[in-house]
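FORM 12-B: Structure-to-Sequence Request
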């Protein structure tokens, strides 16, 4: 199962570097802990750059990355493998940098021609990332970004891959991305509650999504409300559920989305 991520483990030097500082003095060739830390920082920064183009999605990439990391761990991936998926989660929409504003920011459904252009963003993202050595392994971050809109039944894009031909990291990100998108408010589509989004993910198991990843997602159901609330608080520090605060600035989409969820979802007590 883990062969999709290349070798299952690194050298002794890489293993020791992963648990502390990198002592390679730049000789690790881009694969030691120093390069990994830099890659994570770069991935987070680039993800924020994409989100900054659309103020409605203030923390979409970061939330997808965090949920992808949780799903990776639930699936049994090693820390190194989960780290790769986490980086790809930050970068999954980097190709949208190449999508014109009139399409990316359109306050309504896209036309057929506009949708065809939007569907190019996974390919554009992979091309942007490929020159960065730590992202371009095979398979690796680039391939996860390229395949994150493939569907388990083979009807996705850009290549119509199906089943296990889709990199495992991309199958994980697909679930995380879909859940986060459904709980974000868009001008042409109201946000779904957590229950509604979870139901939709489960309904598309085996068609859009890998059933094994959906199983892992459902096992994390009790953590989803807390994850959304944490993201809302970080992006909207004045967001106050107690009623005692006086937040006067506009409330971002995820704050509004969270407010739409049933009150009992605020706790971590959802059935797993």
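FORM 12-B RESPONSE
SEQUENCE OUT:
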């Amino acid at each position: 199962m883990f062969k999709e991520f290349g070798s299952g483990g690194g050298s002794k030097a890489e293993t020791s570097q992963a648990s502390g500082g990198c002592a390679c003095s730049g000789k690790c060739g881009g694969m030691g802990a120093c390069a990994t830390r830099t890659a994570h920082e770069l991935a987070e920064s680039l993800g924020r750059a994409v989100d900054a183009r659309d103020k409605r999605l203030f923390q979409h990439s970061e939330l997808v990355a965090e949920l992808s990391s949780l799903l990776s761990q639930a699936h049994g991936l090693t820390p190194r493998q989960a780290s790769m998926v986490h980086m790809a989660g930050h970068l999954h929409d980097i190709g949208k940098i190449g999508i014109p504003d009139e399409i990316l920011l359109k306050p309504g459904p896209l036309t057929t021609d506009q949708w065809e252009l939007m569907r190019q963003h996974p390919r554009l993202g992979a091309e942007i990332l490929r020159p960065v050595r730590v992202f371009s392994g095979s398979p690796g971050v680039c391939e996860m970004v390229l395949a994150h809109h493939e569907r388990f039944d083979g009807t996705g894009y850009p290549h119509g891959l199906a089943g296990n031909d889709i990199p495992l990291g991309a199958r994980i990100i697909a679930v995380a991305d879909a859940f986060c998108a459904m709980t974000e408010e868009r001008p042409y589509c109201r946000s779904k509650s957590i229950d509604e989004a979870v139901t939709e993910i489960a309904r598309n198991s085996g068609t859009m999504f890998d059933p094994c990843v959906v199983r892992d997602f459902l096992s994390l159901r009790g953590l989803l409300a807390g994850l959304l609330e944490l993201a809302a608080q970080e992006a909207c520090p004045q967001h106050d559920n107690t009623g005692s605060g006086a937040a006067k600035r506009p409330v971002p989409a995820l704050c509004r989305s969270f407010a739409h969820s049933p009150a009992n979802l605020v706790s971590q007590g959802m059935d797993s």
